[in-house]
Specification:
Elements lengths: L10 H21 L2 H12 L28 H13 L5 H15 L32 H11 L3 H8 L6 E2 L1 H4 L3 E2 L10 H8 L9 H8 L1 H12 L1 H16 L5
Antiparallel strand pairs: 1-2
């Protein structure tokens, strides 16, 4: 049975999606807000439970901003509001996931626009944010979180690679500082830094460090530290999977 909240993806909707893409590109470029836009997309999708078929990229994060894992994301939600007001037919869910894809693109990452699948319905009630990743977690915590979403160990490493963008903020995570030397450039330097170990001035969460400590995670880290092209190709696959959790 079709979801009654799902938009009708016709020629007009696709035209509006293209306009939303251009407006998001302008906002992200002018505001240097790619990291928080990517976090918005991740955290909206990250509530998905593959067994219960609940949560996922359904736009409800705008109702969940008081949850501690979502500290700071109001900035991104607010930046998207004028876009939504101008294009009311386009769902919040589509806008937020498109924002994440554009954030990766404008900072030099893989171009995922052609494979963006619009038509996500907006949820009508809050999702549980209890299952979002805790930066102080261990390998089992990461597996509990991502396997619940239906994602793999490789997906865990690839999506962690998004930490190539942005900085940690004391009031959000308890940590302060950038993860890489160029926090507004999407590349494979996150993995390069992981393989180096501790670097003065750069932050590594316990959930980052565990990627080189766990033998299964580490073999993926080694590949992506050495080969940016492979990272970009595999990252695009995992990001698309994440952005479509529970949406078909």
């Amino acid at each position: 049975m079709a979801n009654q909240n799902a938009p009708k993806v016709d020629a007009d909707y696709l035209k509006q999606i293209e306009a939303v893409h251009k407006e998001l590109r302008s906002i992200i470029t002018s505001q240097n807000c790619a990291p928080i836009m990517l976090r918005l997309a991740f955290h909206d999708a990250g509530t998905f439970d593959a067994k219960a078929k609940t949560g996922g990229p359904n736009g409800t994060i705008r109702m969940e901003l008081s949850a501690p894992p979502n500290n700071g994301i109001k900035v991104a939600v607010d930046l998207c509001e004028p876009v939504k007001a101008k294009h009311p037919k386009v769902t919040y869910a589509d806008i937020y996931q498109l924002a994440g894809i554009v954030a990766v693109l404008v900072t030099g990452g893989p171009d995922m626009l052609l494979k963006f699948k619009p038509g996500r319905p907006d949820g009508t009630q809050k999702d549980s944010t209890a299952g979002l990743p805790n930066p102080n977690g261990d390998a089992q915590h990461l597996r509990d979180v991502f396997h619940r979403m239906g994602l793999s160990d490789r997906d865990i490493v690839l999506l962690s690679g998004a930490h190539t963008l942005g900085k940690a903020h004391q009031e959000r995570s308890g940590f302060e500082g950038p993860f890489t030397r160029e926090p507004l450039k999407f590349d494979n330097s996150y993995f390069v830094e992981l393989m180096k170990g501790e670097t003065p001035g750069l932050v590594k969460f316990p959930t980052d460090k565990v990627l080189t400590q766990d033998p299964v995670f580490r073999k993926h880290v080694q590949i992506y530290a050495q080969d940016k092209k492979t990272f970009f190709s595999h990252y695009a696959e995992s990001h698309k999977k994440m952005s479509e959790l529970g949406f078909h």
